[in-house]
Design goal:
Blueprint lengths: L1 E2 L15 E7 L12 H11 L3 E11 L2 E3 H9 L2 E10 L2 E9 L3 E8 L9 E9 L2 E9 L4 H14 L7 E6 L8 H10 L18 E6 L4 E6 L3 H6 L5 E5 L2
Parallel strand pairs: 2-3, 9-10
Antiparallel strand pairs: 1-5, 2-13, 3-4, 3-6, 5-6, 7-8, 8-9, 10-11, 12-13
Helix pairs in contact: 1-2, 3-4
Length: about 240
């Protein structure tokens, strides 16, 4: 896990709101054209200009491949934290968070299921204008039983009233009445879920943003610029939250 805690400064305030947050599966920084281009991912993040971003499938270095998160952090000027979940051909991949505000602490949550591909969540406490937010960036598995076990574990881990909780990531769930989504709706209440996958012609709402308390969520939309459609097989999902 890596952690940086000095973001660009913001104005003093007693409230963290409003905020723009986003989640994006960057597909290993490999675009729809098959090209590995973290700089292109960085340009999309600059288009979005979110305060906090959850990223999945982030290349974190190894086997002669640079850490793509370093490129994204340098391009955006945001604080960064990461948690590796799997190693492929000697290269590390995982979840990451970029934040305009200080990341005060992080925890890596192992949600791997049996012999399936390792999965995890990055759980971070972020201080925003003297208020704390809890951000969870995750990427769930491909099998229904896998996702059910993973959601049960996540709900147990971050069931807290101490601070607002934002869960973001690629949940790999397209059946709206599946048990994982029903459990999440029961916990967070229903939220808009526009389709994000595949990026060229999105059909499935695989990427989601939930917040507790729900009334702070103002809007959710897909960032569907021409560059975003090319940079990954998923489109970024962006939400505006306020007090």
């Amino acid at each position: 896990m890596s952690l940086a805690t000095e973001p660009a400064p913001g104005s003093a305030s007693s409230s963290p709101w409003p905020l723009v947050i986003a989640t994006w599966n960057i597909h290993g920084a490999v675009g729809a054209d098959g090209e590995y281009a973290p700089e292109r991912v960085a340009r999309v993040l600059q288009e979005i200009n979110a305060d906090i971003v959850a990223l999945q499938e982030v290349p974190l270095g190894g086997a002669h491949m640079a850490n793509a998160l370093d490129v994204l952090q340098d391009a955006t000027g945001l604080a960064a934290a990461s948690a590796a979940t799997c190693m492929i051909s000697g290269r590390s991949y995982g979840n990451a968070i970029l934040s305009r505000y200080p990341i005060r602490s992080t925890r890596a949550i192992d949600i791997s299921f049996g012999s399936r591909e390792p999965r995890g969540a990055l759980d971070a406490d972020i201080e925003c204008h003297a208020s704390m937010l809890r951000i969870i960036a995750t990427h769930l598995g491909l099998r229904p039983a896998e996702r059910r076990a993973q959601i049960r574990k996540l709900l147990q881990v971050f069931d807290t009233e101490e601070m607002p909780v934002i869960l973001m990531g690629d949940v790999n769930e397209w059946f709206m009445w599946g048990r994982p989504l029903r459990w999440l709706v029961s916990h967070f209440q229903a939220v808009p879920a526009p389709p994000t996958f595949p990026s060229r012609l999105p059909i499935f709402a695989l990427d989601r943003i939930w917040i507790h308390p729900r009334h702070r969520l103002v809007s959710v939309q897909v960032h569907a610029s021409a560059l975003a459609r090319l940079a990954s097989d998923h489109l970024p999902l962006v939400a505006h939250i306020d007090g």
